[in-house]
Amino acid sequence: MTPPAKEERQLDSPVVYERLREVVSATGKSQVSLAKEIGISRAYLVKILGGKVALSGSAIKALMRAGFDMEHVITGEASKDQLRHDLNRLRERYDAIVDIVTKAMQEKRSEGE
Description:
Helix 2 (31-38) packs across helix 3 (42-49). The chain is mostly helical. Helices cover 69% and strands 0% of the residues. The chain has 2 domains: 1-77, 434 Repressor (Amino-terminal Domain) (Orthogonal Bundle), CATH 1.10.260.40; 79-113.
């Protein structure tokens, strides 16, 4: 079996690096703090984010340990764990909104009595 052509290899795709830049940007962390958190130099992180060097297995593992959904970065699809996490966060927010509305309605009723 022959290896896939370079343009077919997912990790070489520019879209992978674009998704990685998006998820890194969404954290709001500086490159310095993120590099320190995942245990690489800022210069190496800049090269990764710029697509100048390939994502190594150790870099992928480090990013996963830092909480990045690397399945999403590589494939464009969220992992089941990430989806569960997002769903739980939405449920918590929904519950908080319901509590706020319920309390406001109770206060409104008690003012009218």
